[in-house]
Amino acid sequence: MYCSNERKIEIIFNIDENTQHLPKLGDQRYKYSQVHKKQGFLRYYSAGVHVQPTELFRRQLVRETDAPMFRTPLVLSLSVDSKIQPDNQTVFKTSRRVYIPFGINVQSIRLDGMSYNSFPLATDYDHIKIDQCTIDLNLKQAKITGIVSVEFSIEETDYDKFKYFQERVVPLNAHIAKIMNRPELNLYENSYITNEVFKMMTTIMKNFDLLHSSNYELNRPLRERLANLLIDADVASIGPNNNILLTESTEADINRKKKQPYAMGLYEYKGAFFKDRQEFESSMKYAEMMDQTEDEIIASKKRDNRYEYMMVFLDENQRIHEITEQEINDAEDVIYAMTESERDEYELLRTMDTEQGKAARLELARTAKLRWKVANGRV
């Protein structure tokens, strides 16, 4: 019996890795107590089946050096008899069960009468309540039937894809920032170490598909922005071998770059900077659909430009001197004068529609304004 807020889902997986251990699942010594075996088929129920992303499976077994390194995106774990001793190569054990993992790929998904051939990258597989799983030992396939909530979606937006990427990269970046903040660590005092850092940065750019990329047309605007960002306070020129040479800037060059950090490599329209002309045209079409005026879109984009300049191009010490009086008195822009922890708390309090929450936000804003006044000689 299904509730009105639940939907049936049917998934067929191809079992592509570790298949040599499939026969063990039906072997009398290994067979899980709740498995039904019949003519080349094994039927599991919810307690003996678990699906998870391969990266999560690897993290859980990080200490097991002999654990299988699956190349498939997903891992299907099927329980075996609890008396089997785990060897951490074929058979593994958690606090609740003993199991054999298999590398799997999605063949098809059936939901709401529609067919799909993949899940979104950010899918939480724990949201799929498995009823049963039928293993075809001959075809090496697993058919799972279960239920999902009405909120569960197979559709994937560009934002969903970016969120998946962001959740995995941001913690790494935070870890690097902690390491680089150690005062005794200076990677640029020794030429050998600097060369090694260069190799590491080259690898990172390759992983981001920015070097020797098949997407060179698509990522050109990003590469141009990165190149200009790396030039920083220097003046760039082209050397005899078509290489870039950097020389020290004059004060006028530095001031010009501070005032127009987006001017190079971006598409400008009425003082607002867009990634390229395509983004500008898309923004204008969106404005038309949403009954917004061109001036409203331009004003919104200028605000985004300003936010990126303040939060990306400047550190806290630089930012406090760039904040205008209008910004420090604005309920949104006052965050420019806050520390990272204050900004996080300020945004969290925004979700609390209570007098206490409003009072706490006002106190944070007052602290930020005082910091701005002190830094700019207004006290």
Note down, in words, how this protein is organized.
The termini are far apart. The protein is 40% helix and 22% strand. Helix 11 runs antiparallel to helix 12. With 379 residues, the chain is α+β, with helices and mostly antiparallel strands. Among the domains are: 144 residues, no CATH class; 61 residues, no CATH class. Strands 1, 2, 3, 4, 5, 6, 7, 8, 9 and 10 form a 10-stranded antiparallel β-sheet that branches. Strands 11-12 form a two-stranded antiparallel sheet. A hairpin with a 2-residue loop joins strand 13 and strand 14.
Brief summary:
With 379 residues, the chain is an alpha+beta fold. It contains twelve helices and 14 strands. Strand 7 (98-111) and strand 8 form a beta hairpin.
Oligomer kind: single chain
**How many distinct beta strands?**
14
- What are the low-pLDDT stretches, counting only 5+ consecutive residues below 50? none
Report the C-alpha radius of gyration, rounded.
28 Å
User: Which structural class do you get from the secondary structure elements?
Assistant: alpha+beta
Task: Tell me the strand percentage band.
Answer: 15-25%
Largest sheet, described in full? Answer: 10 strands, antiparallel
Instruction: Work out the helicity level.
Output: 40-55%
Number of discrete helical segments: 12
Keywords:
ten-stranded antiparallel β-sheet, 379 residues, alpha+beta, 12 helices, 22% strand, 40% helix, two-stranded antiparallel sheet, 14 strands
